[in-house]
Amino acid sequence: MNQILVSEKLYITPELKRKKRMYKIDFFISVFLVCILFSYYIYAEYDKNKNEAISQEILSNLSFKDNVADDTTIKFSNNSIVVILNTEDPFEVIYSEPVEDVNPEDNIEWLETENGTRYYVAATIKIPSIDCEYPILNESTDELLKISPCKFWGPEANEVGNYCIVGHNYRNDKFFSHVPELQIGDEIEITDLTGRTLIYDVYDKYVVEPEDVSCTSQRTNGLKEITLITCTDDSSLRVIVKARERQ
User: Fold this and answer.
1) Is residue 184, in this structure, part of any structural domain at all?
2) How far apart are CA 57 and CA 51, in angstroms?
């Protein structure tokens, strides 16, 4: 009988105590890591919403100055002004005599990030089918891409060539998250610095490796094209959407 009535404490060996202590430590570490990850997620969502608000505020306050006729584009060079009339038979009128240099950036409203980076809105993009409307910032940097889609490569907006725009896919309703859902024939509206809006029709969509930049080629046969660039949902590849000016 005495052999049966053994105290429970006799079975708690030093090894068992060590294991219990390790389990407690592992538990507290796991809880700590979960809290950190949850805090990071909350901050990331807050940061996205804050940048979305900044982007929409920029868009709402935007007022492009329409200083030229709708069918005329003025380009600036060092000693001449080239006027290209958008007619069925385009031609150039070049003033060969030196004229006073004109800087197109004189009419640009420069903005500044919290870190002091200066930028401006180069155009706006509107995609009705996915309810997407944003300003396009003048260059693509990690900092500016957090604020809005950015120009990645090519000429100025609505000019002959391939105007490439890059934006984040946040897998929600923000920025270029729904760009991978675009279909052939969907329309994209681009408004440039003069206030001129052109409509582009999607004619191709495909996926490439991150290092593949062939989509930025400027060989457009004299046509105006745009290319939208964003990530796949798992961020491993790049979604490319090509569109051409509606004729």
Assistant:
1) yes
2) 10
Expressed as residue numbers, the domain containing 187 is: 62-245
H or E element in which residue 51 lies? helix 14-60
Whether 185 contacts 244, CB under 8 Å: no
Question: What are the residues whose beta carbons fall under 8 Å from the beta carbon of 233, sequence distance 6 or more?
Answer: 169, 171, 180
Given this model, what pLDDT does residue 121 score?
95
pLDDT for 115-164, tens place per residue?
899 999 999 999 999 999 999 999 999 999 999 999 999 999 999 999 99
Q: Is residue 108 part of a domain?
A: yes
Task: With respect to residue 2, please indicate whether it lies within any of the assigned structural domains.
Answer: no
Q: Which of 27, 55, 6 is nearest to 174 (CA)?
A: 55
CATH number at residue 241: 2.40.260.10
User: pLDDT per residue over 3-51, tens digit each?
Assistant: 545 454 556 677 777 777 777 777 777 776 766 665 554 545 555 566 7
In a domain? residue 9: no
**Nearest C-alpha neighbor of 232 from the set 206, 199, 211, 212:** 206
Domain count, the chain: 1
